[in-house]
Structure formats: structure tokens, C-alpha cells
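Take one protein record:
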Amino acid sequence: MDNEVKNELRPEIEQAEGNITVKKNKTIDFIAKIICLLLAFFLWYYAVSVDTVNYEEEFAEIPVEIVNKGEYAVLSGDGITVDVTVSGNRGAVQKLKNSDIRAYVDVSNVTEAGEKLFDIQFKLPSGVTLEKTSVGAVTVYLDNKASKSVSVEAKPFNYSMSSEYTLNISKIPDIVITGPEQIVNKVARAELPVDLNGESITSGRKYSGKLILIGEDGSEIPEADRRYLRLSSDTASVTVSLYGNATVPVSVVFKHGIQKPENATVSLSTETLNVYGEIGTIKNLTVNCIIDEKTLKSGIPVNCVVGLPTGVQNVDGVNSINVTVTLKNYSEKELTVSVFDTSGTRVTSIKVRFRGESSVMSRLTSSSVKATVNAAEGENTGVVEFEFLGEFSGKVYEIYSEGEPYTVSIAKATR
């Protein structure tokens, strides 16, 4: 049986009149024809799909070069891109990359500075044709590059205020302008328009906005020119404040807060001062004369230097005030107290004069006072600090000897 099947597939060999004839198997012949037909179809499909000249493809954001710049600088036009559609052999087009397509403008024929329109030119690989572009021409500004610094001024408008006040606007730093020389030379200054929206100004407010450029003729630089300029800052901020005059009181404040004002009579050579400043600052302002109660001598005038907040002017020109403080119900006592270091070791004893409310001073003894010296590293001398115990806390304080805090030498300590 197997031999019969095999014989069916072999060509038949006949002998006729001395000649041998090979008969082909019909099945093999049919299969061969089918294979040839399929090969022919694939060859045809490849030729149609790959080699057609009508294949198109778009390439986006091809950079446009500016070539042959000559003596001028390119001040605008750089960084432009164009979308292109090309056609050609499918195989060639599909191999293309953006870098294979060159777009450029030639500015070699420019003989004077200014803004000019140039056609975009293209260089494509062989066999590829340009079909269309998103942009056909670009504007390029050619000129010498220049820079200069200009002042900035705030211009408030649309507001109302009392005639007794003045408007004060914080200063804006200068800015630097860079761009085409012929446009830069037109700019005289910059301005910040400040629209106060018709409000009545009562205190300082901050405003921000975009700067405008003003030409030598006083008119605004048009946007057609400004677009070629670069500013070190396009915006600015200012504080708009209302300024005026006020009469403010002078008050005495004790430095350490131990001396009670109600236990003293204070006399001032000047009790009020006329000042000028931002109304929000001066409205509730009090000029304080700070008196150190530890150096104070009752009934003896002392000089108080007048200090005012930043931006507030002293209209009267009074730089100092004589202050006389007369103490009431206060008495003084001198005691010898032991001084200890921070570890609790006694280092010496000193005589100290104390002041306090008369009602408690009669009971003040050395045991009611804790004196500690704390010298800085590497130093043998330190300032003595006093702590008053029990009922004497907040009612007694030391009087500085010769106007300076008490100090002791640890090197001379008594152990």
C-alpha cells in the first residue's frame, strides 16, 4: 500500500519507439503555479506600497536657521520653527528624520539695521519634495545690540486724600534695558502706573504692576518696538503711604521695670514733640525716654536722647530731653554680701548699696540677697547678678557703683 502511494507521487516514465517520456505529477504542477502567483502578488504589493512617489508625511517643529548674518546681530527671529510636509518614495520618506530637513533664511543682503521679512528656504535629501509648510516667511530684526540703565518712577492716579496729608511712594530700583540699539536709544525712563481705584488712602498699601517704557518725547514706547526689548524686570512693586504731622507725647520708661512709676515724680523739659511721618506709624506714637533706675539719683536731672522710629522726622529738632525723677516712699541701704560662683563656691564679699520701697527696706538683710558671679570663658572678672528672696523680689534693686554694674575678680577668690 505505501509503495502504491509513493508511486503515485513520482513522475511516470514511458518508453515509446525508443524514446523515454517523463510525465509530470499534476498535483506538484498546481502547487508550483500557486506559489508563483503568491510571489508575484507580494512583489506587486511591495512595489505599490513602498516605491510609490505619492507618499506624504508631515515633520513638525523644524528649526529655522539664520545664516550669513554679516556685521549685525540677530535681535529677534531666533528660535522659530516650521512644520513641513514632504513627499517621495515611501522607503526614502520613512527613513527621514527632522535633522535631515534643513530650513533657513539668508540675511546676507541686509545693508541697514531694522526689521525685515525673509522667505524660508529648504534643503531636502535627494528624491524628497517639499509639498507645504506652516510658515513661508519670518521677520528678523538685525541691529547692533545695546543696553542701558533707566530710572523707574511710580505714577499714582485715581485717588483722593485730605489736603493736610501728602502721598509718599517708596523708591523703585533702576532697571536695565537690552535690545536693538536704535530702539534702546529711544527709551528715556520706565513708569509704574499705580491705580488706587478711587479709594481714600488712610494707611500704607503695597501695589504691583507691569512697567511701561517712556520715550524721549514723553510718549509710551509702542508694543511694536517694545517686543524687541528685554528688561531686567518687567514688573515692580511700591508701597503707597499717607504722610502727615502729629504732636506726640513724651513718656518716661524705667529700663529694668523695677522702679514703680507711681512712686516717682517725673519732670520733663519737653512733654510733647511735633513729628512728621506715615500716619499709621505716628497715630499712636509715644516718644519714650528710657531711664536706668540703677544709675538714677533722685532729684538730679539726666539727659534722655530722643529716638524715633525709622521714617519719622523730628520736626522740632529736639534731640534730647532733660528728665528729673524724684522718688517717693523709697529708701536706700548699704550691705556687705557674699558672692558665689555658679558652682556655689564663695569667691569674695562686697559692699553693695540697695534701693527699695521704704516699707520693706528696714527688713532687708544680707541673707535676703543672693549674689552670683559668672565670668566668661578665659576671663578672671565677671559681673555680679543679684537675686532678692521672698518679699523683697521685685521691690528692691541694687544701685550701680559709679554708674556701672558690680564686678569681682575670681582670681582673688577667698576659698
Summary: DSSP finds seven helices and 30 strands in the chain. The chain has five domains: 2-50, 55-143, 147-243, 245-327, 330-412. The mean pLDDT is 85.
